[in-house]
C-alpha cells in the first residue's frame, strides 16, 4: 500500500508499507506533480508516454524523464 501526505513544511512524503516496514521517500516538486499526473492519466489510458506527461506538465521533457526515473527507482510507479 502506498500513501501520500504533505507535511507541515510542504514537503511531500510518500510512505510505503511493505512487509510491515515503513519506507519514506521525500519527493521534489517536479516528482510530486509528475506522480499526480501519472495517477490522473492512468485512469484514462493504459499507456502513458513521457511525451504525454511533458505535454501536460509545466516541466521540460528531460525534467519529466528524470522525475520518472526517480519515481521508478523508488518503486512508486512502474514501467510497462
Number of helices: 3
> Strand-residue fraction?
15-25%
Strand order of the largest sheet: 1-2-3
- Indicate how many domains the architecture comprises: 1
Q: What is the radius of gyration? A: 13 Å
What is the general shape?
globular
SSE series: EEEHHH
Largest sheet: 3 strands, antiparallel
- What is the residue-mean pLDDT, rounded to a whole number? 72
Low-pLDDT sequence parts: 1-11
Alpha-beta content class: alpha+beta
Q: What separation lies between the terminal Cα atoms?
A: 20 Å
Helical residue percent band = 40-55%
Number of distinct beta strands: 3
Describe how the helices and strands are arranged:
Blueprint: E1 2-6, E2 12-18, E3 21-27, H1 29-42, H2 50-56, H3 61-73
Helix pairs in contact: 1-3, 2-3
Amino acid at each position: 500500500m502506498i500513501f501520500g501526505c504533505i507535511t507541515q513544511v510542504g514537503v511531500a512524503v510518500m510512505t510505503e508499507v511493505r512487509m510491515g516496514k515503513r519506507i519514506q521517500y521525500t519527493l521534489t516538486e517536479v516528482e510530486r506533480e509528475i506522480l499526480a499526473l501519472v495517477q490522473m492519466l492512468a485512469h484514462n489510458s493504459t499507456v502513458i508516454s513521457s511525451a504525454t506527461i511533458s505535454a501536460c506538465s509545466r516541466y521540460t521533457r528531460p525534467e519529466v524523464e528524470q522525475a520518472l526515473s526517480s519515481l521508478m527507482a523508488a518503486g512508486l510507479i512502474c514501467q510497462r
